[in-house]
TrEMBL record:
Name under which the protein is recorded: FAD-dependent oxidoreductase
Lineage summary: Bacteria, Pseudomonadati, Pseudomonadota, Alphaproteobacteria, Sphingomonadales
Entry superkingdom: Bacteria
GO molecular-function terms, A-Z: flavin adenine dinucleotide binding; N,N-dimethylaniline monooxygenase activity; NADP binding
Coiled-coil intervals: none
Keywords: FAD, Flavoprotein, Oxidoreductase
InterPro entries: FAD-bind_Monooxygenase_sf, FAD/NAD-bd_sf, Flavin_mOase-like
Length: 647
């Protein structure tokens, strides 16, 4: 158990549950492995728990029917009903770690490493973190110790909350007129999240009310701004302000940060003790360098810069790109446009995720809202199946034969699952199958997640064309391919993704002695210590920095929380030592990079056929974290004193 945490009080879930009809209906539909975890939390009956183990499969969908025989399932529901409606509510006792480990393993139908247990406590919402400023014996930051947070998206909001709870004076600098970052900016039709929100959300603000397992963009934006509201974050935000440069002052040991008013262009300098970079990895739009694009007379919009008032009814539309954004946009507009031509440069694996279009029904909502620990155990399940449970897909098995097509048994199974889906959906269209199926192993680059009525169904529509002939140039009213095909279009949608290099974007960061971080990194050679810090840049903290993006699966929420925790631990170390600044040693930085590169050799992104935006111009992956989320989380609990210099 985390020393900074206390168990979630049972009073959060008033028992007994008096809406017996509601409970009966909820139990009938709720996820059975999750109900078993709730029951075991109270009953702690190991034999009963283990009697279910043979029927638990490792197959995940949120509402998958279980393989548990109906008499056993009903017995579990009856026991829970009795327990939760008993006039004498059940008493919760601490769970023995060995039983807890068995619970985790039974709940997901496979052996779970005991090392995951601390993650379970911290990230699944079982415990309520005590605000840092209330931890007995902790030395509070000196008055006026100020942290400047760059960016008010999902990371910046969480950083503000946690810095505030730790007693740090903080200001968030946000270039937009509102918070939300990606979810504020991305308003293209169909925008949503293809990783499940019961995990993709803050561990300290679990939301039992998600309307679907993969909500649309506006709902996520509402969640983020709602959380910001609850914690009073807005009062700390300077909106419509850009950070242009940050310069470390060696003499004063603080950062002089140049800010620009987005509306007037006026610049000013503010001073901060620390800078926390939360400007988002996928925030700087990538515009294709296609000859003639500027000459196109009609509207052309990047997906992240969509005009929500644009009416596409009856228009001839082109979409350039076939990544996750295009795969959400195209199905949302195909029914209203007169024609849609989609330009594919290279192939993306398409994997079926049947939950994408599934709403959370009222019975499940009841379970999430009223059954104690249901939403936490459900979150664990989602974390496992869409997070670290997928790690075997991206780590090469040295003994795996025929590495040309797959890299491990799990990766091969995922490939077959994807192929089965693609062949089923596109049966009778060998031309489309030929265009779609990649030759590199699945997970080699970001996969497209799809469900009924989505991307592949859209490609089958009579008014939709998937064009794989590369674009040669664009004219004022048309796109022309290399082989001379000319598509006259009214609107061009640029689903062409984001610029990851240079990693700082236009921001200039000057550390000790004026050293220039962007120059040190060059165009695309960003490196760091733990994805968070770099030597010679004291009190400069990155989030989702080099090699810390969780590209094997969902989990950006977990990485950003881990990094914020680590950053505040580091600041607390400075305060406790009576110092002013912290930075990693050169040796720690070098060692970390060796560790990353050694691990990267075993990862799918090093496969000779895998090409993606994770790789720099020399083929080095400078984006992805090659480790399990749980391992990365454990390394970011506390700065290693050997690796740090406090000055
Ligand atoms: P993306 O994955 O980078 O895809 C960009 C697409 O545009 C690719 O198909 C790319 O082709 C193509 N492209 C780029 N430049 C081109 C050019 N000059 N000519 C022709 N085609 C070009 O971008 P995205 O779809 O916006 O997604 C970016 C990231 O955002 C994703 O990886 C994901 O992490 C995140 N995202 C998440 C969700 C979600 O639901 N969670 C939704 C949307 C986006 P190549 O493949 O050949 O490079």
């Amino acid at each position: 158990m985390n020393a900074h945490s206390q168990p979630t009080p049972a009073s959060n879930f008033p028992l007994p549950i008096t809406d017996k009809e509601g409970l009966r209906s909820a139990l009938a539909e709720a996820n059975l492995p999750t109900l078993l975890m709730v029951y075991t939390t109270y009953a702690q009956d190991r034999a009963y728990l283990e009697s279910f183990a043979p029927y638990m499969t490792g197959i995940y969908t949120a509402e998958a029917p279980s393989n548990v025989p109906e008499d056993m399932a009903q017995d579990l529901r009856d026991r829970l009903f009795a327990l939760l409606t008993s006039p004498t509510p059940p008493v919760e006792r601490p769970i023995d770690p060995e039983l807890l480990r068995t619970m985790m393993s039974v709940s997901v139908g496979e052996e779970v490493d005991p090392a995951i247990m601390p993650v379970l406590y911290d990230q699944m919402g079982f415990e309520r973190p005590v605000p840092r400023k209330d931890i007995p014996g902790r030395i509070p930051p000196p008055a006026g110790f100020r942290v400047l947070v760059i960016g008010g998206g999902m990371t910046g909001i969480a950083a503000g909350i946690k810095l505030g709870e730790a007693g740090y004076d903080y200001t968030i600098i946000e270039k937009n007129p509102d918070l939300g970052g990606t979810w504020y900016e991305n308003r293209y039709p169909g925008v949503g999240v293809d990783t499940p929100s019961h995990f993709y959300s803050y561990s300290f603000e679990l939301n039992p009310d998600w309307s679907s397992y993969h909500p649309k963009g506006p709902e996520i934006q509402n969640y983020l701004t709602g959380v910001a509201e609850k914690y009073g974050i807005r009062d700390h935000v300077q909106f419509q302000t850009m950070v242009v440069a940050a310069r470390w002052d060696d003499a004063q040991s603080n950062w002089h940060v140049t800010l620009r008013d987005v509306k007037t262009g006026a610049e000013r300098v503010e001073v901060a003790n620390a800078v926390l970079l939360a400007h988002g990895v996928l925030n700087r739009w990538s515009f294709p360098n296609i000859p003639g694009l500027d000459s196109f007379k009609g509207p052309k919009m990047h997906t992240a810069g969509w005009d929500p008032d644009m009416d596409l009814t009856g228009k001839r539309v082109a979409v350039i790109g076939t990544g996750a954004s295009a795969a959400q946009l195209a199905p949302a507009i195909a029914g209203k446009v007169s024609s849609l031509v989609i330009f594919q440069r290279s192939k993306h694996w398409v994997l079926n995720n049947p939950d994408i279009a599934v709403p959370v029904n009222e019975n499940i909502h009841f379970a999430l809202r009223h059954i104690p620990h249901y939403k936490e155990w459900f979150r664990f399940r989602v974390y496992w199946f869409t997070g670290d449970g997928l790690y075997g897909n991206v780590k090469m098995d040295a003994d795996w034969p025929n590495k040309d097509v797959s890299i491990s048994a799990q990766n091969d199974a995922a490939r077959n699952y994807a192929l089965h889906y693609i062949h089923n959906k596109l049966a009778g269209r060998p031309d489309l199958i030929e265009k779609i199926v990649p030759d590199y192993p699945i997970f080699g680059k970001r996969i497209v997640l799809d469900a009924d009525g989505g991307w592949l169904d859209t490609l089958l529509r009579p008014n939709v064309t998937l064009e794989t002939d590369h674009i040669d140039h664009i004219e004022e009213d048309a796109i022309v391919t290399k082989s001379g095909k000319r598509y006259e279009v009214d609107v061009i949608a640029l689903a062409t993704g984001f610029e990851l290099a240079p990693a700082l974007g236009p921001l200039k960061v000057y550390g000790r002695g004026g050293c220039d971080l962007a120059a040190a990194w060059g165009k695309d050679e960003a490196r760091s210590y733990l994805g968070v810090m770099a030597p010679a840049y004291p009190n400069f903290f990155m989030t989702l920095g080099p090699n810390s993006a969780p590209n094997h699966a969902a989990g950006v929420n977990m990485v950003l929380e881990a990094q914020i925790h680590y950053i505040i631990e580091a600041l607390d170390k400075v305060v406790a030592a009576g110092g002013k600044a912290i930075e990693p040693t050169e040796q720690a930085y070098l060692d970390w990079n060796v560790k990353v590169e050694d691990q990267m050799k075993q990862m799918i992104w090093s496969h000779p056929k895998a090409k993606s935006y994770y790789l720099n111009s020399k083929g080095r992956n400078y984006v992805s974290c090659p480790f399990k989320l749980a391992d990365y989380w454990s390394w970011t609990r506390n700065p290693d004193p050997e690796a740090m210099v406090i000055s």
